Amino acid sequence: MQTIRESRPRDGRENEAGREAARLRRPLWIALGLMLIAFNLRPALSSVGPLLARIREDTGMSGALAGALITLPVLCLGVFGRLGPPVTRRLGPDAGVLAFLIVIAAGLVLRGFGGLPALFAGSVLAAGGIGVVGVILPGIVKRDFPERPGLMMGLYTAVLCLGAAAGAGLTVPAGRLLESGWQGPMMIWALPVLLAALAWLPFVRAAPASPGLGPRRFAALWRDRLAWQVTGFMGLQSSLAYIVFGWLPAALTDRGFDPLAAGLVASLSAMAQTVLALLVPTLAGRSRDQRPWVLLVVGLAVGGFCGLLVGPIGLVWPFALMLGLGLGGCFGLALTLIVLRSPDAQTAGDLSAMAQGVGYTLAALGPLLIGLAHDASDGWGIPAALYGGLGLAAATLGLLAARNRHVLAR
């Protein structure tokens, strides 16, 4: 009996220690799940550019239709991103993420069935799912990591950039390995999406975790000047990024690179995004003024892309590195500003819907304008100047959005 009595306190202490360990581990597992999801939010977009020449050759796609294939998914990010708040209210943020991961996987499979209708329909479906998931995730970060939003948004954007790099750099080699033209590489990216869905399944909650802002507060958000400044910066920096995703491989091909080499340059640039995508949100989240970071990252992005379009060929790798650092920092800072400018998780979710919904809709115009400028000038000088103008506008709105204040502040 003495042995039993002595063992009970020890068992109690062990159970308590086990519960404490489980409690401490849960944020880590959530973070890992978020990273898996982040990896899968860009290959659907960045994998199209390296295959565009092959798709046009096989299908006879016109230049205008190719521009639409690049532009339409970006537009869908914005249009479908507005579903984020109602999905969160109806299903809860965790179940909403799971449901639309499945939508992304279905779209990726569909676009590889062959033929232009399936390609466009699958691209719309995958981009729509990405738009909804991307809108919901900042609210989850604000809810589960309120003390470390900058670090978590930095990790999130860094892994997202790795996914973009994988889509840009591995799609062509995957096609050669599969010997299936462009259809197989289009479909293969559904596999990691399904893996992310399985990893996220344990975190799905039965009831919604957030009711949202309510109609009056949500309407007030759309009248808030700071909210529009955050939205403008998100949209313009996204436009800079999607111009690169869509047109960089084609521009490099025009300048004498073969498709594989052009894809590798784009992949290096995308991989470089992870550096400032991690560092800028982490460091900016610790400071009261994020305006110096706006000037740094936008300047790097504009200088790098314009250098690739019209600069010396011998400097293509330094320009690609500069471009990647700038775009990674821009995107990480834009997402971090959504969290920093929001006083709570509910506001972060709705501001995310506004910034990404409206922002991505505006961003869709960027690749289209660059394509029109290229067709009109039959060169890359005017597109480079247009890109610089968009960068100037992004920097202006970013400086306003980076001031230390909250939306809906009285």
Automatic annotation (TrEMBL):
Q: What keywords does the record list, in alphabetical order? A: Membrane, Transmembrane, Transmembrane helix
- UniProt-listed SUPFAM superfamilies: MFS general substrate transporter
Per its record, what are the GO molecular function terms?
transmembrane transporter activity
Q: Which residues cross the membrane?
A: 28-45, 65-83, 95-113, 119-141, 153-174, 186-205, 226-248, 260-281, 293-313, 319-340, 352-374, 380-402
Query: What CDD domains does this protein's entry cite?
Result: MFS_NIMT_CynX_like (cd17339)
Keyword check for Ligase? no
**Matches recorded under Pfam families:** MFS_1
InterPro entries in the cross-refs: MFS (IPR011701), MFS_Cyanate_Porter (IPR052524), MFS_trans_sf (IPR036259)
Q: Which PANTHER family match?
A: 2-NITROIMIDAZOLE TRANSPORTER, PTHR23523
**What protein name applies here?**
Major facilitator superfamily MFS_1
